[in-house]
Fold this sequence. Notes:
The protein is α+β, with helices and mostly antiparallel strands. It has two helices and four strands. It has a four-stranded mixed β-sheet with strand order 1-2-3-4, covered by helices on one side. The longest helix has 18 residues, at about 60-75. It is globular.
Amino acid sequence: MTKEELIKALEEMHIPKDFICFEGVPGDCFCVDQAGPEKWEVYFSERGRRYDTVCFDHEEDAYDYLYKMAESLREKTRNIWQ
């Protein structure tokens, strides 16, 4: 999944735009950062701290992971984002 595909999928699921931070200073949200030439990190940022960092070798894998996470959270919260 590309960044653009992820953004579109999140919009279709009615998930707020601030659910994921792609660049800049992260707020309380899920973040994806390029940590090296072939390394991508996905983590949750809260009050300036990183939690549950997961590393990927490919950008697309990081976006796939975030999509699956969004789906799971949406189901667990009983679709409060609709």
